[in-house]
Specification:
By secondary structure, the protein is of the alpha/beta class. The chain has helices at 5-43, 62-70, 106-118, 138-150, 167-173, 189-195, 204-217, 238-244, 277-286, 298-302, 328-331, 333-336, 344-349, 358-361; strands at 78-82, 123-127, 155-160, 179-183, 221-228, 248-253, 293-296, 307-308, 313-316, 323-327. 39% of the residues are buried. It is a peripheral membrane protein.
Length: 365
C-alpha cells in the first residue's frame, strides 16, 4: 500500500489531538478526585473502601459544650497528623488502628497544613499507622519538605516503626526533618515478636541501630518511643538507651482507647497488655538515671495531644474514645479545634513544649 504525504498530515494531527485530550482528561480527573474527597468529608459519608463508613460527628456532652463556651481559643502550636491508619506491624496495644485505608490527596494535605500554619502551628509530627507505607515514604517526604521549605516550620518530625526506611530517603529528605522518633518497646527480639513488632528474618533492634547511624550521618535528631506494657515492664533498658543516646526517650504507659484497642468494634484487645500505675512508676524508678527520659502516664497522655486523623479532623479523647470534629478543610482550624478536647495546661505540664528544632539543639553530630 502506498502512503502519501496527504495521508500523514491528518494522522499526525489526530495523534496530537488525542495527546492533548488525554492531558486535559488527566487534569479533569485529578480535580474531580479532590472535589469528591471534599464532598465526602463534608457530608460525613467517607468510607474505608471496604464497606465501612466513618462514624458521624457526635454531639458534645453538655459539660463539654459549657467548657467550649467559656474557654479561650486554642492555638495549635504542636500538632500530630496521623495521615494514614495502615501499618505493616500488628502491635497488640495500638491505639490508632487500621480502620480505614484513606489517605488525603497530597495537595489537600498541604492545604490543611497551610491552614494550621496560619493558625499558629510551630511543630508538626507525622504519624500513622506507618508513615513510610504510603508511596514508599515519598508521600511523607514531600510533606516534610513542604512544611520546612514552604511553611518554614521550626520543627518537623516523624514517628515510625523504622522497618521501611531506607538510606535513600535520608539523602532526599533528611535536610528537612528535625526529629525522627522510632518506636522500640524492647531490646529483646522475642518480646518484640510477642508485642507484634516482629519483622520475620529482620531484627527490630539491629534495624534501630542502623537508623541511629543514619540520623547521625544526615543530621537528624534521633528519638525513641517506648510503650510500657505487661511484656516489657520488668525489662532493664538502661544500657541500651544510654548506648543509643537519643535526644529524648519518650516512655508511655499502655493506654486503652474505646473503639481502637478496647470494646466491641475495636481491632485490637489491649487489656492483656495493661499495667498498673505502680508498675509504671517502678519502671520509671529503675531508669531514673537516664537523662533523656520523658515519662507519660495515662493521665498525662490522654488529653494533652492535638491529634488530626486521616481526614484532618481533630480527635477528642476526653471520653476514653476518639470522637472526631469536622474537618479543618471544611470548617477551618478555629472552629474544628473547639471540639478537640485539648488540655493545654497538661500539654505544658508534660513538657510538650521543648527545644524541638535541630538548629537549636546544637547536637554533636
Amino acid at each position: 500500500m502506498q502512503i502519501t504525504m496527504g495521508m500523514l498530515v491528518p494522522t499526525a494531527l489526530a495523534a496530537r489531538l488525542v495527546s492533548l485530550f488525554q492531558q486535559h482528561l488527566d487534569s479533569l480527573w485529578s480535580g474531580l478526585a479532590i472535589l469528591f474527597c471534599r464532598m465526602r468529608i463534608a457530608l460525613g459519608w467517607i468510607g474505608s473502601g471496604r464497606g465501612q463508613s466513618q462514624p458521624q460527628v457526635k454531639a458534645e456532652p453538655k459539660e463539654t459544650q459549657e467548657k467550649l463556651n467559656s474557654s479561650q481559643p486554642v492555638t495549635p502550636v504542636s500538632v500530630n497528623y496521623h495521615f494514614t491508619r495502615q501499618c505493616n506491624y500488628k502491635c497488640g496495644f495500638c491505639f490508632h488502628t487500621a480502620k480505614t485505608s484513606f489517605v488525603l490527596p497530597l495537595e489537600e494535605a498541604k492545604r490543611g497544613l497551610l491552614l494550621l500554619k496560619q493558625a499558629g502551628m510551630e511543630k508538626i509530627n507525622f504519624s500513622g499507622g506507618e508513615p513510610f507505607l504510603q508511596d514508599r515514604g515519598e508521600y511523607v517526604g514531600k510533606l516534610v519538605r513542604f512544611c520546612k521549605e514552604d511553611l518554614a516550620l521550626p520543627s518537623v518530625s516523624i514517628v515510625s516503626n523504622g522497618s521501611l526506611i531506607r538510606e535513600r530517603w535520608f539523602k532526599d529528605y533528611g535536610d528537612y526533618l528535625d526529629i525522627l522518633a522510632i518506636s522500640c518497646d524492647s531490646f529483646n527480639e522475642e518480646v518484640n515478636v510477642l508485642i507484634g513488632r516482629g519483622q520475620g528474618k529482620k531484627n527490630h533492634v539491629e534495624n534501630l541501630q542502623k537508623l541511629r547511624k543514619w540520623c547521625r550521618d544526615y543530621k537528624v535528631a534521633f528519638k525513641i518511643n517506648s510503650v510500657i506494657n505487661r511484656f516489657n515492664v520488668d525489662e532493664d533498658m538502661n544500657e541500651h538507651i544510654t548506648a543509643l543516646s537519643p535526644v529524648r526517650w519518650k516512655v508511655f504507659q499502655c493506654l486503652l482507647i474505646e473503639g481502637e484497642n478496647s470494646g466491641e468494634d475495636a481491632l485490637r484487645e489491649a487489656e492483656r497488655f495493661l499495667i498498673s500505675n505502680e508498675e509504671f512508676e517502678a519502671f520509671l524508678e529503675r531508669h531514673k538515671e537516664v537523662s533523656c527520659l520523658v515519662p507519660e502516664s495515662n493521665q498525662k497522655m490522654k488529653d494533652s495531644y492535638l491529634i488530626l486523623d486521616e481526614y484532618m479532623r481533630f480527635l477528642n479523647c476526653t471520653g476514653g474514645r476518639k470522637d472526631p470534629s469536622r474537618s479543618i478543610l471544611d470548617v477551618g482550624v478555629e472552629e474544628a479545634i473547639k471540639f478537640s478536647g485539648f488540655d493545654e495546661k497538661m500539654f505544658l505540664k508534660r513538657g510538650g513544649k521543648y527545644v524541638w528544632s535541630k538548629a537549636d539543639l546544637k547536637l554533636d553530630w
